[in-house]
Input
Amino acid sequence: MRYTRFEKARIIGARALQIAMGAPVLIPVPEDLVDPVLIAMREFEMGVVPITVLRE
Output
């Protein structure tokens, strides 16, 4: 599925908030990568973010 830039921003932002609040990370993360936004972006690029978009 292709996402608009707005959907992508919302998905990454929501996932980054989840990670910042203590949600488990779904990918192996290097020790030096601690920013939740960068981790969420990497998860999004790998296609493992557990968030979907409903369109009408």
User: Anything to note?
Assistant: The helical segments are 5-20, 36-46.
